[in-house]
Recover the amino acids of this structure.
């Protein structure tokens, strides 16, 4: 994805387990194109996300001087000029969105990552990737059981009067707990609030292991869920920042890394 005429456009694509996100930056600072498709690695999602971002920016592939892929599917053949760890990309992307951030909590489709960040550089991290508990997939399963849309969970949990305790650390067992609470007549709102507390209970343990410092920022698709955000703030006893671009943090970091690489290679216009 390299052009004969030097340009200042770099592209980052984050291919996750459930979604594909793409960002195009100009001069390593100005966002000129973005896209998100609810299809991840092994699907047409990455190619569609890339094309949609190019179209929004009014560019062709040839006008992008350097591209970087990150996420689960980052090593797919022909996807980008190079690839980079999603942890490093999320650290850089979070710093771009929140320059003074020290702790980043990323809840993805299949894992949870907590990172300590210093000036945009990953200093230390902890992650839970052994089980779907506490992840986006966990929330999708719970939403299906409750027969609600997953993107409505945050709104519905705000109506809770008393969160129901969901104690299991396993998605399958938690599903059984939810069904049991429904059969007992528990409020759907209270059950959802309990589900969110269950999610954050997994996160808090990782945060403490990292030795987190404020400001704390949440990235990933689950950052859009205000119920999880509220529960995390309660558990951590501090405010947790987000951005309308939080879900794109990995792709932003990849595009930033692409800009640095392009400068080092002399591919960027002076």
């Amino acid at each position: 994805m390299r052009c004969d005429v030097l340009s200042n456009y770099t592209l980052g694509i984050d291919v996750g387990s459930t979604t594909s996100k793409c960002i195009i930056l100009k001069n390593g600072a100005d966002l000129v194109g973005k896209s998100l498709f609810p299809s991840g690695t092994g699907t047409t999602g990455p190619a569609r996300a890339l094309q949609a971002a190019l179209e929004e920016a009014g560019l062709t592939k040839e006008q992008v001087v350097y591209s970087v892929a990150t996420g689960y599917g980052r090593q797919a053949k022909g996807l980008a000029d190079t690839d980079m760890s999603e942890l490093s990309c999320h650290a850089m992307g979070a710093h771009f969105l929140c320059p003074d951030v020290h702790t980043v909590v990323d809840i993805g489709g299949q894992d949870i990552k907590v990172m300590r960040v210093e000036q945009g550089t990953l200093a230390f991290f902890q992650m839970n990737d052994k089980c779907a508990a506490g992840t986006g997939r966990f929330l999708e399963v719970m939403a299906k059981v409750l027969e609600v849309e997953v993107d409505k969970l945050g709104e519905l949990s705000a109506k809770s009067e008393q969160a129901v305790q969901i104690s299991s650390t396993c998605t399958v067992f938690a599903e059984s707990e939810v069904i049991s609470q429904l059969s007992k007549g528990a409020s759907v709102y209270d059950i959802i609030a309990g589900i969110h507390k269950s999610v954050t209970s997994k996160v808090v343990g990782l945060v403490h292991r990292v030795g987190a410092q404020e400001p704390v920022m949440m990235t990933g698709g689950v950052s859009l869920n205000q119920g999880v955000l509220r529960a995390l703030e309660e558990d951590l006893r501090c405010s947790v920042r987000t951005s309308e671009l939080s879900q794109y943090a990995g792709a932003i970091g990849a595009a930033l890394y692409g800009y640095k690489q392009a400068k080092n290679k002399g591919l960027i216009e002076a």
Summary: Helices lie at 45-57, 86-97, 136-146, 153-157, 171-183, 188-210, 226-236, 249-264.
